[in-house]
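May I ask for a single protein's sequence together with how it folds?
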Amino acid sequence: MSDKKHHNHKDDEVDGLNAKEPETSENSETVNVNTDPGELESLRQKLNAAEAKSAENLDGWQRAVAEFQNYKKRMDRDRESEKAYMKGDLIKKVLPVLDDLERAMLNRPEQDAWVNGIELVTRKLHTILEAEGLERIEAKGSAFDPNFHEAISYESVEGVESGHIIAIVQNGYMLGDRVIRPALVRVAK
């Protein structure tokens, strides 16, 4: 057996009263009942001031977090925008090559073997540019729109309504909602 005494709760009772210490939680505070009312009011004011400061700090922290998230979103948008402009600038530099290939295809000789190779290269270039989001601006027969078209001449043509496009001199292209190059067109007077 052990040397420890067996503790009996009945030993804690004195004259029928329970001598157990009252249970207290770790967070409970003891208040001296004999506390001066002025001192109690002072403690309440300090508590209210501490709670107000805590709320102010929480509000400031929440604002800082929100500002950082907004900054991060803005930086992501700016990065995407910059990427789109860089892609557009690169594609704009390639468009004259595409124009030359398309002109070569319009004036191709019937019997030359190299024509099939040029046609294949032209189709591949179209496919690559379309995969990057490039779209041709459809213009022929539509109303002239200075946002998408650049007029190089105004001509009187019977059977075509004034302000409508007669012919496309050079194709125009868009990348997403941005005009990379307006279509060069001839417009009816």
About this structure: The CA atoms of residues 108 and 115 lie 7 Å apart. The longest helix spans residues 37-106.
